[in-house]
Amino acid sequence: MRKLITALLTTISVMTSIANDTVTVNLRLIETTDVHGNFYPYDFINSRPWKGSLAQVATFVKQQRDELGSENVILLDNGDILQGQPTVYYYNFMDTTSTHITARMMNHMKYDAATVGNHDIETGHPVYDRWVAQCDFPMLGANAIKTATETPYFKPYTIITRHGIKIAVLGLTTPAIPAWLPENLWQGMKFDDMVETARHWVPIIQQTENPHLIVGLFHSGSSGASTSGYDENASAKVAQQVPGFDVIFMGHDHRHTLDTITNIDGKNTIILNPASNAHAVAVADVKICLANGTITQKSITPSIQSVKELASEKEFSSLFAPAQETVKQFVSQVIGQCDTTITTRDAYFGPSAFVDFIHQLQLSITGAQISLAAPLSFDASIKQGDITMADMFNLYKFENMLYAMHLTGAEIKRHLELSYENWINTITSANDHLLKLKNDTKQARLQNPAYNFDSAAGILYTVDVTKPYGQRITITSLANGERFDPATTYTVAVNSYRGNGGGNLLTQGAGIPSDQLTSRVIWSTDIDLRYHMMQQIKQAGTISPRPLNHWRFVPAEIVDPAIVRDYLLLFPQ
Questions:
Q1: Domain total in the chain
Q2: Could you report the per-residue pLDDT of 292-343, keeping only the tens digit for each?
Q3: For the chain, how big is the Rg over CA atoms in Å?
Q4: What phi, psi does 361 have (nearest 5°)?
Q5: Domain-ending residue, one of 328, 359, 384
Q6: Alpha-carbon dihedral angle through residues 384, 385, 391, 395, given to the nearest 10 degrees
Q7: Any idea what the CATH number is for the domain that residue 555 is in?
Q8: How far is the C-alpha of 108 from the C-alpha of 120, rounded, in Å?
């Protein structure tokens, strides 16, 4: 009844305004982004309650629609929704025949538009093409271009009309996708520069549609990271260099952002990002006043609204409870045994059983001489005892493929030099911090993402913490005792993120031009690495992960005290 009364009052208000040749419309735009499969307030990987989910976003959206009327609320998503929790993995790759759970949920919540993210593309054509076809709203991506026709693969923009107000929503995604993903996942596409694409489409939208509001829905962060020559996070640059946008909703970099950018015409564009995992939503309250069809006032009030303390929306929870139970059964399957507990916590201070187990699997699967790998989760563990499907998501967070590549010994050394430069300081005293930390009081954080901290297996080497970047790594031999030669070409196992240039270790570090990386790949899996790891564990039955001890930090008298102190700063509990 309350909802009906609100809708009637809104209609009466608009009609009265029209009679006086004036119209005032208040709209609330709501954005989710980087949900990463967090649909339920439950962490399937670690079997525990979880704060942040689409179920809680659904509660927030229902509250807004009840308060303002459904026509006054516009719901948008900014990508990276098909990867993360086992929920999406199950409906991506296990149940491939029913309507995708993500499409069902988003349709139920009545999303108005969405932009595709890089982790959505990571699922491959069969998955995201199926998902897009099943969504009742347009999927946007103006800079994802069909190579055969030079036209957008997804819809470039959409027009949403409410109470006579036309809202144009232009979608863009980060163009760095080729630097992270194998081409077979995005075959038939290319990803154009965001600024140039926006420059092309905004005048078309203005001339063709004459909208009252132009909204950017960009799966790209504000600024900062650049990957292998791609402008990965370019939203602020678009806001500054391409006039016309009233508000730009962002994603991708998982950073809370609420800012105003002055463009080259001297006008302001609001940019905002609610970060990730459905802990919060971005909101733009828009007020537009028209007189005889001309805008006399337009104001936008932005905010970031937390949803993680809200209860799940009852209808959502009831409707999707069977799917939740299906996923719980999936992740609880036992696939093997582990005779010890392993953790990524050890990986920042030397060889670890966790990362070295990944090295061993990569070497076994590829038959390569050398493996390069990093801890993909900052703080993950597999407990002694049963290994379940849930543990596989702790062991390997992303749906990477596995490559075997040809690299020279000199390239391997340079790759490792940049990896450890991201990772450690040059220190001369046991009182110095070994790790590059953002803060060194209470609970510290790493300056750089751990998934770019590659170590190697198959070679024996030391990392001298007293030496500067470029002089730290000394490789003594292959692990089998054979001489290591900088001029010799070796077969090296890496994941597809690294092999395509992710983290810049092969490009800036090893010095391989990004357009030559593909030619270095001599073999690739056609299914994600996690699947192959699972098969290896099933075949083994019981695994006994132990550190390989193929490398170490030196000198010990400086390193050992620094390790103890930095460990307690990172993991005080």
A1: 2
A2: 888 999 999 999 999 999 999 999 999 999 999 999 999 999 999 999 999 9
A3: 25
A4: -65, -40
A5: 328
A6: 40
A7: 3.90.780.10
A8: 20
Q: How many Å apart are CA 99 and CA 411, to the nearest integer?
A: 46
Among 328, 352, 367, identify where a domain stops.
328
Cα separation of the two ends of the chain: 51
Long-range contacts of 149-155 (CB under 8 A, 24+ apart): 153/188, 153/189, 154/116
Whole-number Å distance between alpha carbons of 287 and 300: 6
In contact, 553 and 466? CB cutoff 8 Å: no
Give the C-alpha separation, 114 to 132, whole Å. 10
Domain residues for 209?
Answer: 30-53+72-328
**Rounded distance between C-alpha atoms, residue 46 and residue 32, angstroms:** 24
Q: Global pTM?
A: 0.89
Report yes or no on 285 lying in a domain: yes
Q: Is 176 found in the same domain as 39?
A: yes
pLDDT in tens, 117-150: 999 999 999 999 999 999 999 999 999 999 999 9
Q: Are residues 45 and 131 in the same domain?
A: yes
Q: Is the per-residue pLDDT at 282 higher than 90? A: yes
User: Is there a single domain that holds both residue 307 and residue 272?
Assistant: yes
Same-domain pairing of 322 and 344: no
Query: With 0-12 CB in 10 A as exposed, 13-18 as middle and 19+ as buried, what is 166?
Result: middle
Q: Answer left, alpha or beta for residue 79, where phi above 0 means left and psi between -120 and 50 means alpha.
A: left
245 and 110 fall within a common domain: yes
Whether the predicted pLDDT of 7 surpasses 50: no
Any idea what the CATH number is for the domain that residue 46 is in?
Answer: 3.60.21.10
Whether residue 224 sits in one domain with residue 369? no
Q: What are phi and psi of 94, to 5 degrees?
A: -95, -60
How far is 472 from 386, CA to CA, in rounded Å? 40
Claim to verify: residue 48 and residue 178 sit in the same structural domain: yes
310 and 430 inside one domain: no
Q: Could you report the per-residue pLDDT of 526-573, keeping only the tens digit for each?
A: 888 899 889 989 999 999 999 999 999 999 999 999 999 999 999 987
